[in-house]
Design brief:
This protein has 293 residues and is an alpha+beta fold. 60% of the residues lie in helices and 17% in strands. Keywords: Endonuclease, Hydrolase, Nuclease.
Length: 293
């Protein structure tokens, strides 16, 4: 059964005093394209998180948001820039000697100098955090897949209804074809009579020759046969339990091509109207197929 490429999932796990929130959203895209927004302390797990997504999704633009509430994950460390301190003290002593100043260089003075202290966040890469985050990710992806599956069922039903509708238009086109022969014959006879201004008996052989030429020029038998084949292939592809979005998109393009050819060959008003209806419905199918995984 087909799946949609639109979905959403979220999950929250708690480790000690910190909560990890994971949100994942997906929309349609030709390929599988992932973007992450997460705290720097968790970036080392990005590749593992990608593998969780790749195991369940095949197409779509995937946006993943990971946020933290709490501080347990990050260990902070204060560093001293000893090289900078040495330079400060050396220069302060130089100033003291140069201007014969009195007083001591105190810890209070040094602690207020710029760039002496720096705060660093150290990654807490314990297995507990890894397992918790991966579990949250897996749960969020599971919810997203469920939503994509549900929407896929709705897409499937909609596309089946549209296929039934275009088949109906196609059958009408096929039924219309034989009627055109008689209409061509009557049209040519009427024109001959109009031009001669007399009720002469037209040469049936010549009329039939003209009808044959018109019929051959407007013959759409091959296009109708190929369209029937495309419809059958489309229906069977809908039931395949794997990503088929690209295949469906290709089939719909082929449908469009055949219908355009029929339209260019048609010189009959009723057939042209049916072609317009067919094109309109196939265009709607194309829009729906754009969201199939």
């Amino acid at each position: 059964m087909i799946k949609s490429m639109t979905g959403y999932g979220k999950s929250t796990v708690e480790v000690n005093e910190t909560k990890i929130h994971v949100e994942i959203r997906s929309v349609n895209h030709r390929f599988l394209d992932m973007t992450f927004k997460m705290p720097p302390a968790l970036m080392f797990l990005e590749e593992r998180l990608k593998q969780v997504v790749k195991g369940r999704l095949y197409r779509g633009r995937i946006d993943i948001f990971v946020s933290l509430v709490g501080e347990d994950l990050v260990e902070k460390k204060i560093d001293v820039n000893w090289e900078m301190v040495d330079q400060y003290i050396t220069r302060l002593k130089d100033i003291q000697r140069r201007y014969e100043l009195t007083g001591d260089i105190s810890i209070d003075m040094v602690s207020k100098l710029d760039h002496v202290f720096s705060e660093k966040e150290m990654e807490n890469d314990s297995d507990e955090w890894k397992v918790a985050l991966l579990e949250a990710m897996d749960d969020a992806v599971r919810q997203l897949v469920e939503m994509r599956t549900k929407e896929g069922h709705e897409l499937h039903d909609d596309l089946e209804k549209r296929i039934a509708k275009v088949r109906s238009w196609l059958n009408s086109l096929d039924e219309r074809r034989p009627m055109l022969i008689d209409e061509y014959k009557e049209r040519i006879r009427t024109r001959v009579e109009e031009y001669t201004k007399e009720q002469l008996r037209p040469d049936e052989t010549k009329i039939l020759q003209e009808v044959a030429l018109l019929a051959e020029k407007g013959d759409v038998t091959e296009e109708l046969t190929r369209l029937q084949s495309h419809f059958t292939q489309f229906e069977s592809t809908l039931s395949i339990d794997e990503p088929v979005g690209r295949r469906l998109d290709f089939i719909v393009q082929e449908m469009h091509r055949e219908v355009n050819t029929i339209g260019s060959k048609s010189n009959d008003g009723k057939m042209t109207e049916m072609v317009v209806n067919l094109k309109s419905e196939i265009e709607k199918m194309k829009e729906q197929v754009q969201n199939v995984e």
